[in-house]
Design brief:
five-stranded parallel β-sheet, two-stranded antiparallel sheet, disordered N terminus, alpha/beta
């Protein structure tokens, strides 16, 4: 399939956690499949990508948010119907905790979607990135923006809280692998694609059925973290042994 054509399976879901490169992945996906509908955290309580959803589904913002809260499966079915009518692919993302573990939405994905699981091996970096974003209020950076003085980005990390987060991260990864073992399931490790847009584009095209990634793909986002972890964590010596990639071998 030539780059830019809609993917063979019309609806896809990107499952991950915050601060794991999901916006980066979707930005590269949009370069590879510019005709597809790309939406973001549409299942979180506050909603996301509301203008795109309103245009695609012909619903009011209030109606969409009501479905997010009480009928997430119905919202996904409407997106599947839109993909069927329009002939373009649809991709959205969901974080592990956006809906309850027993919500029927997860089963609907298993039966009716291509599933991409984006995993960050180093959960220390997820935790640190989240803490810095909370402190600075800066959750993403765009290439066109002028450099800003973001103030003191150094944070203190509690060891107990970090250990609990890392354990939970491993549990969530394992749960997704188990749930989708017999589905159209694909894993991507963030550390394998973070430094090369070309590498990310090749991975996207391999998963979604395009024979050739676009030449010189460019995205608006730029990487936020440039400093080493020891320069960002006030008490780094107390938690340095946890700054490592978890043993997360590829799933099925």
């Amino acid at each position: 399939m030539a780059s830019g054509e809609p993917s063979a399976m019309r609806c896809s879901i990107l499952i991950s956690s915050a601060r794991s490169g999901t916006n980066y992945f979707l930005s590269v996906y949009q370069q590879c499949f510019p005709r597809d509908l790309v939406v973001k955290e549409i299942f979180r309580e506050q909603g996301d990508s509301l203008p795109q959803l309103k245009r695609a589904l012909g619903l009011s913002e209030d109606r969409i948010l009501a479905m997010v809260r009480t009928q997430p499966s119905a919202l996904w079915r409407l997106l599947m119907q839109h993909a069927g009518r329009s002939g373009v692919g649809v991709i959205a993302k969901i974080f592990y905790y956006h809906v309850a573990a027993d919500d029927p939405l997860w089963m609907l994905f298993r039966r009716r979607a291509r599933i991409v699981h984006l995993i960050r091996r180093n959960a220390f970096n997820i935790f640190l990135s989240r803490e810095i974003a909370r402190k600075t209020g800066q959750w993403q950076v765009f290439r066109h923006e002028m450099p800003s003085r973001r103030g003191n980005r150094r944070v203190h990390i509690g060891r107990g809280e970090l250990e609990a987060f890392m354990s939970l991260h491993q549990q969530r990864v394992a749960a997704v692998r188990t749930r989708y073992a017999d589905a159209d399931y694909h894993e991507v490790f963030y550390e394998d694609i973070e430094d090369s847009i070309d590498a990310c584009a090749r991975r996207v095209c391999a998963i979604f059925g395009s024979g050739q990634p676009p030449e010189q793909p460019k995205i608006a986002l730029k990487k936020q973290k440039r400093e080493r972890n020891e320069a960002l964590v006030v008490n780094y010596d107390d938690v340095a042994d946890l700054d490592r990639e978890l043993t997360l071998e590829p799933g099925p």
